[in-house]
Specification:
Layout: E1 2-3, H1 8-30, H2 40-43, H3 49-76, H4 82-108, H5 115-143, H6 150-176, E2 185-186, E3 189-190, H7 191-211, E4 220-221, H8 224-228, E5 232-235, E6 242-245
Helix pairs in contact: 1-3, 1-7, 3-4, 3-5, 4-5, 5-6, 6-7
Amino acid sequence: MVNIGFKKIPALGCFIAAATILTCYIWAHMNGHVDGIPFFSETGGREPEAFVFTFGLSISSFLQASTMFIMSDKLLRKTNSKGLRFWLHLSKYLGSFLSWIGLFCLSIVDTYDYLILHTSFAQLYFIAALCVALILIIALYIVNPKPRSKNITKQLRFKLISLVLLFLFAFPYISILAVPFVPSYVLGFPKRQFAAILQYFSVFFMMLFFGSFSFDLRDYIISVEDMKNGAMVVEISESSPLVVIKPDIN
């Protein structure tokens, strides 16, 4: 039986990120450093908010990358498909690393003094995280074929809805400031404020998707090797973890 035991990591990473963003937002407005609807980075661009911004997001970046790494590893243990394993290896090593680099570096690179570099790291983080999320949701559906239990169906449906909404808001956010012909006003909002609103929703659904891994009921998985040896799975109840019974092969 393989116990990954990481259930607190996704929720903790999202909680720290949310607390950091909220603290910096309120503090920056109180200090008069921002007005209107600022980008998250602008709320942490001036001292003393910058210290909270850097400290909180640097920790959150590590925890979120750990979530990507561990979930990819868990799914790798449940499949023999060469194609799926290739993408999961990319997610496990490259995707988690690039998302960590992107979020960690944007937390320490000043948004006012190095705007282009800061924006590049933000785009790197979002693109890497989106790719990892897409790989994970596809892998989750593949390794959990029908018929599925009600719990697994609910978990997959929640993740899928979160991911669809994440893509819906993240792609316009990533591209809107980089596209020259976007008008200065979008849906009645100045272009920058409209992009900031998209950023808020993107981060929210990003946290929902990755944070939801803390609430999955199944923290135990069977490795491919165990299944080859005839391991059986018994679910005692809907709220209980899986019990894996291994045959004595000695």
